[in-house]
């Protein structure tokens, strides 16, 4: 159905005489195809929500015009993704597996950052923003769900994605570092995985040292929570909290001068 909707919209765009209408419908075709594919992946086989959403989107594009057309298509896709998420949640029995979290993150990214679909589309930066960042955020959410429970992990990830809005490098690193923190603190994991997770905690510093310290501080605090199964084995990591907080505060001082 996503491919059929994409093809029908592109055909409709091709017969438009107005260049602006043709560009708008081409954009909506890309947006609809991506979000509909995410719906189908989230809901699973024989996705009824994606099927009906494809039909409604096609009708809206053919019947409506201008800003009303874009608003209607976006609303249909947002509602459809929410309904597909509920259906997929029931199908999986409340488990936040990568098969659920990754397509959800991709669908949210397309809705919240639809500007990324504007030309040019094939440069590396756009592909990273559209695909790699939400995929990494989805995988990190699945890891956090193992330790915190699926409901808490999904709510936290959704809040980060919606408020940003969308997945950028900083918000994605925050989720990935949190997941790396709990993995590195879990002695029940293989040593190579714990070492890789610990090394991953250094990545936020490469972008913004001050914010990176705060991200790592939050990850360490999360890993040493009493509710975390790995907390009893991660007690030594709690000693990092005070010096990390002090370093983070010092690192933010130059930025704080610009806030006044």
Please explain how this structure is put together.
It is a single chain. It contains twelve helices and no strands. Helices cover 76% and strands 0% of the residues. It has a domain at 1-91. Helix 8 (169-184) packs parallel to helix 11. It starts with a helix and ends with a helix. The protein is an all-alpha fold.
Summarize the structure.
With 260 residues, the chain is mainly α.
Write the layout of secondary structure elements.
Elements (H helix, E strand, L loop, with lengths): L1 H13 L4 H25 L4 H16 L2 H26 L6 H15 L11 H25 L1 H14 L5 H16 L6 H10 L2 H5 L1 H15 L17 H17 L3
Helix pairs in contact: 1-2, 1-3, 2-3, 2-4, 2-5, 3-4, 4-5, 5-6, 5-7, 6-7, 6-8, 8-9, 8-11, 11-12
Oligomer: single chain
Number of extended strands = 0
Average pLDDT works out at 77
Overall helicity: over 70%
Overall 3D geometry?
elongated
The class by helix and strand makeup works out as mainly alpha
Query: Mind summarizing the main beta sheet?
Result: none
Number of helices: 12
Instruction: For the record, give the distance between the C-alpha atoms at the N and C termini, rounded to a whole number.
Output: 53 Å
Radius of gyration: 21 Å
Strand content: under 5%
Order of helices and strands: HHHHHHHHHHHH
In the predicted model, the low-confidence regions spanning at least 5 consecutive residues are 229-260
């Amino acid at each position: 159905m996503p491919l059929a909707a994409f093809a029908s919209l592109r055909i409709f765009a091709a017969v438009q005489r107005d260049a602006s209408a043709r560009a708008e419908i081409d954009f909506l075709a890309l947006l609809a195809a991506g979000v509909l594919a995410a719906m189908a992946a989230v809901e699973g086989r024989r996705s009824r929500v994606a099927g009906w959403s494809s039909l409604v989107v096609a009708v809206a594009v053919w019947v409506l015009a201008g800003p009303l057309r874009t608003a209607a298509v976006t609303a249909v896709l947002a509602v459809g993704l929410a309904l597909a998420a509920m259906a997929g949640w029931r199908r999986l029995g409340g488990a936040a597996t990568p098969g659920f979290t990754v397509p959800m993150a991709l669908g949210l990214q397309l809705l919240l950052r639809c500007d990324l679909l504007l030309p040019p589309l094939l440069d590396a930066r756009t592909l990273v923003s559209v695909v790699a960042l939400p995929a990494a955020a989805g995988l990190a959410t699945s890891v956090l769900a193992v330790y915190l429970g699926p409901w808490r992990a999904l709510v936290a990830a959704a809040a980060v994605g919606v408020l940003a809005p969308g997945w950028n490098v900083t918000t994605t690193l925050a989720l990935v570092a949190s997941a790396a923190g709990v993995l590195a603190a879990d002695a029940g994991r293989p040593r190579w995985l714990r070492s890789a997770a610990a090394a991953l905690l250094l990545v936020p510093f490469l972008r913004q040292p001050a914010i990176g310290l705060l991200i790592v501080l939050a990850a360490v605090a999360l890993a040493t929570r009493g509710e975390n199964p790995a907390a009893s084995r991660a007690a030594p990591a709690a000693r990092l909290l005070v010096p990390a907080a002090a370093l983070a505060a010092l690192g933010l001082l130059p930025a704080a001068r610009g806030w006044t």
